[in-house]
Amino acid sequence: MNIRNIDLNLLLAFDAIFEEQNITRAAGRLNITQPAMSNSLNRLRDVLNDPLFVRTSHGMRPTPRARQLAGPIRNVLDQVRDILRDQWVFEYSTAEKTFRIAMSDYSEMILLPRLSSWLQHVAPGIDIEVVPLFEETLPRDLQNNRIDLAIGFLPYLESGFYCQRVILERFVSVIRSDHPNIRDEVTMEQYLDSLHVAVGYRGPKGTAIDQALEGLDLQRRVAVRVHNFSTIPPIITRTEFMGDLPQRMAQQSNQMLGLKIIQLPFEVEDTVINQFWHERVNNDP
């Protein structure tokens, strides 16, 4: 027998006739015409070289060969229905899987502890492997399934990838708690006269702070420019520099290092922290 001569519709026809033992009712069950059902039965008879169903006064009775096939065919159809079922569910509570997530230092510091705590309690079989964000390779890594998810302020991923907002974040300034010149507020003059430690440029126009100052046609003196926000607080504790941090990060650093948080003397657009994934896995629960 050549399996290429069998399609799913023929198996559905067989199952319907076996259940209904009547060609007309079987056709109605599959919403096809009676001639179409009879044609399917004839094709099955040719392929399997057996009458399969014999007309009697009590309906279409299955042959021994049909009875032998009925159970396996029903199992195959059930498996196909399960595979194609719309309600595809990921049971995270019992799953055993490792997800590779590219995270910024902000995401690692603010989001990862909460995520880890949640997983420990509700999905103990799931592990997280955090990898650095490399702008040059991240789009390709997401596309090639080397990374499952990327979380951060990643404007270079906003085209061609799905994204979802995770956090809306605002910037504040931080200084040493015993700063000699600045108390609880900072004027624009003090801000511009201070030496700053700042994170390196992110995005085509820099950080939100850089963009805001550029819009005001102002410039600050950046004495130290670092790669990660998490590097700023330790430098602040040993200098009279001023640093700008996402508010949640500043609050956490304040608890650990005793820094002073002050509001910026100018308006800065909030920063959106998104999670990004490739369209290839968009329907994967």
Chain-wise SSE layout:
Blueprint: H1 8-20, H2 23-30, H3 34-48, E1 53-56, E2 59-62, H4 64-84, E3 97-103, H5 105-110, H6 112-122, E4 126-131, H7 138-143, E5 149-152, E6 162-169, E7 171-175, H8 188-193, E8 195-199, H9 208-215, E9 221-226, H10 232-238, E10 242-246, H11 247-257, E11 260-262, E12 271-277
Parallel strand pairs: 3-4, 3-5, 8-9, 8-10
Antiparallel strand pairs: 1-2, 5-12, 6-12, 7-10, 7-11
Helix pairs in contact: 1-2, 1-3, 1-4, 2-3
Oligomer: single chain
Low-confidence stretches: none
User: Nearest-angstrom radius of gyration?
Assistant: 32 Å
Helix/strand-derived category reads alpha/beta
How far apart the termini lie comes to: 39 Å
Percent helix = 25-40%
Compute the number of helices. Answer: 11
Give the rounded overall mean pLDDT: 90
Q: Mind summarizing the main beta sheet?
A: 5 strands, mixed
Measured by DSSP, the beta-strand proportion falls in 15-25%
What pattern of helices and strands is seen along the backbone? Answer: HHHEEHEHHEHEEEHEHEHEHEE
Tally of DSSP β-strands: 12
Strands of the biggest beta sheet: in what spatial order?
A: 4-3-5-12-6
